[in-house]
Amino acid sequence: MAGGTTTTTVGHSYPRIEARAKVTGQAEYIYNLRLPSMLHAKVHRSPISHGRILSIDTSEAAATPGVHRVITGEDVKSVLPEPYYGPAFHDQPILALGKVRHFGEPVAVVLATDPHIAESAAQRIVVEYEELPGIYDEVAAMTSDIIVHDELKPAGTFADLKHLAGKRDTNLALEYHLRHGDADKAFEEADHVFDHTFSTQQTMHTPFEPMVALADVRNDRATVYSSTQSPSFVRFELARLLGWPESNVRVKTAHLGGGFGAKVYVKVEALALALSLIAHRPVRVAQTMEEQFYTITKHPCTFRIRSAVSRDGKVTGRKCEVWWNGGAYADIGPRVTQKSGFTAAGPYDIDNVAIDSYALYTNRPPAGALRGFGIPQLVWAYESHTDIIARELGIDPVDFRKRNILRNGRPQAVGTIVEDGEFEAVLDETALRMGWNRPFDKGSGTKLRGRGVALGFKASISPTTSSAIVNVNADGSCIVYCSTVDMGQGSDTAMAQIASEVLNIPIELIRIVNPDTDVTPYDMSTLGSRSTFHMGHAVRLATSDARDKLKALAREVGVPEGANTPLPELFIRKFGMRAGNIVGTANYIPDFSPPNYDTGQSSNATPFWMIGATGAEVEVDTETGQIRILRLVNVCDIGKPINPVVVETQISGAAVMQLGFTMTENMIIENGQLTNPSLADYKIPGFFDMPETMENGFIEAEQHNGPFGAKGAGESGTFGVSPAIANAIEDAVGVRITQMPITAEAVFRALREKQGRPLEDDCDDR
Fold first, then answer.
1. CB 610 within 8 A of CB 433
2. Less Cβ around it within 10 Å: N or C end of the chain?
3. How confident is the model at residue 5 (pLDDT cuts 50, 70, 90)?
4. CA atoms of 704 and 731, how far apart (whole Å)
């Protein structure tokens, strides 16, 4: 046993502990699980975006040979009288009741032992609707007469959303307002005022293991196997629906084939539970890739940003209005609106800031958390806006950012003093890797080149709790019980490294138990890059508890302080044979001060800041608008990495994901219908879309209150990608794109506009 100030395991690039199982096909996934006597569920979904349900005819579907039963929302009410769920509002019915609010909403379900029979029968369900007008735009939803929900019922789940109140006759789920200094006065006294509006599109998470849940309800016991990122919350919510104690509900997960925020909170678990209650058999609800488009997405967003700037390039005031399109059900959107909303002014030291951030209901598929929790939408706007200001003032974009950048010891707009936020160092490292001060080849002819940078940041999700249990066996091996879900980010390996470091035993002797709420203790959720910090602390503290107990055991059996006695020998001396256990436990919750409802101010809004910058070099074909990403450099402040190679892959994966959202991904909605719900028409990045050169790295830094100096890294690589590319395009050809995705058509249209020869909307102008 030993601790010490130097590390032997933490900070080293160990291979992922589950790597062999994954590459040999031995790793367990819930999607592959089958239970005896299991029924398959297939969902009949709404073909319209807004309407009243007049009737549901299930007779033909029920008569299909092999069908066990057809179930509607009214059937669900017979076993769950209040069948509504949601982390912010209890607004989402398990199956539609009386009304549908987005296309693709689940209306009825067919159960059968053969999934193909169930799928075929689901097409025979006939639903008659009274179609209602829909609202799809987030800004229009603020004042629209089209109301998505008649009444809103707050869930009361989160400490920072306790102020949510029940409302009627509005599409506004939450409004957050921040006031810092006197923004009006700053604008009155400004030498320059800049005013721009940016927008982002609706996209989806695309986990390659679709959402899946199997429920098995027997008497007063419910077991749910799920590909969830939030096993503890799912247990809480299912127990609430049932009116049972949480001890009667068990939620188990395995490795996840991706999540990215799609699988947080309840998604298909409540439906599986209700179906098993009704059928008295295990039921599997497994989505197709298409069904994921209708279940949860990324918020489309409109962001109007205005800046007051002095003649020497100092931003003296900033006003931000952000409208978040949450779709038909709020999911975690209100928390995105508030938690990300307070960073909307950017990573800059601005004395006077006004932010208004709104969560809106519309008739689109629901939106929730997606790798960045709303931050990439904000960075897209404020870093495009910042670049425009710098260029119009004739100031180098990097120099302009450094004149205004936020530094340690200064208050962020929310009022929290910045600590361990290495904004300038991240920007400097990005510029250095880009060779920003060296001559740059701008291309020639019809192939012109440009480069751009962008810097973003994010507060950690707070307040949240993580708990861990560590069991040291009599042979000296160790089992770590925690409910953090490894969905490809390498968290199991990081937790094993922390346990190995504290206990000073080889990492090969550490085993991580996958989340099982009957076995593993509480964790709020695996989201928001919180696991390394929060669960890392919990595991560190639990192993420290076990280490202290082992020291006490050594003293009890007469081992001198500092003796290098093997652990098994301690147990043998205590119990007379290899027997017994030493168990360490810990809960971790960081300090937090909720924001003032009137001013948005908080003295302690986050336990740490995540920071990421991107530099991009592009080549634009002025005859077609085609864009080549020549180089993408991503640099982050992640404190001290627990596992440097895993961190680099996190940064790389995040940047590539954001590259897709930047260049191609777009859920196209026409006349209330989604026209491209398949990977044939919804384009995610492939190998040929990758930048020709890509660098991913991090600066030397330390988070003083982090476990071994570490902090989260899963999202920081997304922050700067979109605006860096847009800034590079303007540098190359002098056009500014303000709406994502940045397609070749958008660039070509902007080029023609600049030339005074704009294209018609439906044109094929030759």
1. no
2. C
3. low
4. 39
Q: What does the pLDDT look like over 477-501, one tens digit per residue?
A: 999 999 999 999 999 999 999 999 9
DSSP label at residue 151: B
3 state DSSP class of 259: coil
**CA gyration radius, the chain:** 27
Instruction: Extract the tokens encoding 175.
Output: 């409004």
Q: Residue type for 322, please? A: V
- CA dihedral sign, ordered 232, 233, 234, 238: positive
Contact 479, 513 (CB under 8 A): yes
Tell me whether strands 301-309 and 192-200 are parallel, antiparallel or unpaired: antiparallel
**pTM higher than 0.70, yes or no?**
yes
- CB-based contact 9:497 (threshold 8 Å): yes
Residue 502 one-letter amino acid = V
What is the residue-wise DSSP string for 456-508?
EEEEPP-S--EEEEEEEETTS-EEEE-----SSS-HHHHHHHHHHHHHT--GG
| Residues whose CB is less than 8 angstroms from the CB of residue 97 and which lie 6 or more positions away in sequence, other chains included | 53, 73, 74, 77, 83
pLDDT in tens, 619-631: 999 999 999 999 9
How many residues would you count in the chain? 766
Task: Give the pLDDT confidence of 165-174 residue by residue, as tens digits.
Answer: 778 889 999 9
* Helices 397-404, 375-393: inter-axial angle, 10-degree rounding: 110
What are the catalytic residues? 715
Contacts of residues 564-573 at CB distance under 8 Å and 24 or more positions apart, as own/partner, are 566/476, 567/1, 567/472, 567/475, 567/476, 567/505, 568/474, 568/475, 568/476, 571/474, 572/474
CA angle in degrees (0–180, nearest 5) for 550-552-556: 115
Confidence of residue 762 (pLDDT cuts 50, 70, 90): low
Tell me which of 164-178, 247-261, 309-323, 469-483 is least confident. 164-178
